[in-house]
Amino acid sequence: MTSLLFLIPIALGMGLIGLLAFLWSVRSGQFEDLDGAGARVLFDDERPLPPSPPHPKTGG
After folding, report:
1. CA angle 43, 48, 50 (to 5 degrees)
2. In angstroms, how far is CA 57 from the centroid of its own chain?
């Protein structure tokens, strides 16, 4: 029974910390564009990558 005196406040404190972290992320705009990140993965960039330098041992 004594352990509940420690565990209940710890659980409530961790829940409050999680709620505050969630509210902070909502206010800072973390959930503004949920579909944009998934779409950016599927499409290539508009500009091509620069050519890589030749390998010194193979010469090209």
Report:
1. 140
2. 40
What average pLDDT does the structure give for the chain?
Answer: 84
CA 28 to chain centre: 13
Give the N- to C-terminal CA distance of the chain in Å, as an integer.
74
**pTM of this structure:** 0.56
Calculate Rg over the CA atoms of the chain.
Answer: 25
pLDDT of residue 28: 93
- How far CA 59 is from CA of 3, 7, 52, in Å, comes to 70, 66, 12
Mean per-residue pLDDT, 9-29: 96
